Amino acid sequence: MNDAEPLLAWYATLTPETVARVGKFYAADAQFRDPFNDVRGVAAIEAIFRHMFEHTEQPRFFIDERIAQGGQVFVTWQFLFRLRGVPYQIDGGSHLRFNAEGLVVMHRDYWDAAEELLQKLPLVGPPIRWLRARFRVPMPGAGRRHLTDD
């Protein structure tokens, strides 16, 4: 069993000053994986969060829901930040596995980098949006409306 609440509270209040506490929540050989990184060890995980603060403005996490079973938790979240003053929001989820001491040994983030981030960027966005449109399945009787249209 685990109590993920202290870890989730840390994420919700993460600042450049509190990044160094990563070792309080992650095992020494913990793995962290997201669409851009696959690292092992507390120092590497800490470096990812430091990089986040260096390259984004006002980054913050909002924890939505959590499902716990045994030594693992799945959490849905929103990550809000700014790049050059432009606001972004990424919706995703994290699968966390804990060891017997209650430390995270595996952290895997799931989110669609193309949809949530890349297609919103000026240079790479148009070709990604074009590709997504090419592979969409048209909905019968809906004109040009597709499954992913809002």
From TrEMBL:
Pfam families: SnoaL_2. Signal peptide: none annotated. Residues 9-106 form the SnoaL-like domain. This is Nuclear transport factor 2 family protein. It comes from Duganella vulcania.
